[in-house]
Amino acid sequence: MNEFSKGQQLYLRRLRRHHRIVIVSRILILIFFLLLWEIAANTGLIDSFIFSSPSRVAECFWEMVIDKTIFLHIGVTLYEIIVSFLLVTFFSILIAVILWYSRKLSEILDPYLVVLNSLPKSALAPLLIVWLGANETTIIVAGMSVAIFGSILNLYTSFTSIDEEKIKLIYTLRGTKRHVLSKVILPGSIPVIISNMKVNIGLCLVGVVIGEFLAARNGLGYLIIYSSQVFKLDWLLMSIVILCIIAMVLYQGIALLEKWCRKKF
Amino acid sequence: MDAILKLSKINYAYHSYKGETKALSDISFSVSSGEFTAIVGPSGCGKSTLLSLIAGLLKPEKGEITLCGKTLDESTVNVGYMLQHDHLFEWRSVYRNILLGLEIQHKVNAQTRKKADALLEQYGLKNFRNAKPSDLSGGMRQRAALIRTLILEPELLLLDEPFSALDYQTRLSVSDDIGQIIRSSGKTALLVTHDLSEAVSLADRIIILSRRPATIVKILPVTFALEKDTPMERRNAPEFKNYFNIIWKELKTYE
Hints:
The complex is a heterodimer of chains A (265) and B (255). Chain A is mostly helical. Chain A is 85% helix and 0% strand.
């Protein structure tokens, strides 16, 4: 395997160089940005009371780690995101299957789904608080409401765009509609289901934070609203940074799932 | 000779909002057990519709189809159907693709599994048992699709242009290959094709259909005076050209 030709070696070297440049540049941009921010705040170029600074954000984070309050906020938000994401995944597959099963039903419900999907879901959050109370359920439902309608429509479109001939094959093997679902539609839609999950995890995060703005006593969304009211911008920026990290980690988790599925199927 | 399949005065039309398209009108013929029949006709004339009707996927508007004297609903005759494309599922291995029909009919057991392996070996796919369909060549894919059909032990085999998606060279060898497999296993087969030379090289009898709405123009028995009656030998025989020309002319007049 070591016996690569000159051309191949050159190609591989170039490829590695390319990757190195990409990664180093990414890190440099982050460091440059943080340094600029820190220096600007320290020299008074920007008002550190409003803009905070990386060191103050880090300090604030450390304080909250020591008094352990940060874990509660992160834990609550993470829990709400994951529960609403799992519920969205489950119900959107279930409803898309039902719609696929009955063409009549899907045609009847189509305008309602389209309206619900294009409705700005943040408008629903106050209503949910009145109906369900200012509690975790409301926040989870708010998270779901952002993702679920689009998810149903996406999955339904993918289910109905499966090759008619593949479905015919199942019938020629004397299968029923149930077999079409279990042997063709669902396994054939796994890539779409996963890419749909990638979108949903981000949307659930949005919905949960909106919910927490309005109805929470814990969680990062609550922390953001509270800190803006008491003008503790260190908290606010720290919460945003943590939300960024959570979004990235969850997205990577699904990317891993996708890789695993690719190998398996 | 007992007729395994009998169609009498079959009519079928497609409906859409804009109107009705008559596809088949008064089609009557029968197929005897062990016979290889080909149906040719201009493209879009309703040949495939005919197979869907026989397989029970569509219901005729008028007329009756019987298998061994019984209507399709009562019949116990096992009908196998091969489509234009192999439709092997990419998320299944070759072996699990072959088991698809058995899975649906709840017939997967030690005996059928053994048979699947035997068929894989017989048709030269043994080494690709656990491969993905995309690793197979066009001809191998079509053979895998044939095994998927044959493992259900059909008494009547419906072939809907099963070679049309292959390139010319593969097509010749696969039709040769599959033609011989079907002949040697003594299956009754009904092949739909628009390739006249394919029909002549494979069939005992050729049914020529007109343009839509399709009616039967002529039923042509095909016999070759050959020691070894294989599709390849047929293509080289002097009669081949004659049959080809007869069908060509028939199709021309009714165009």
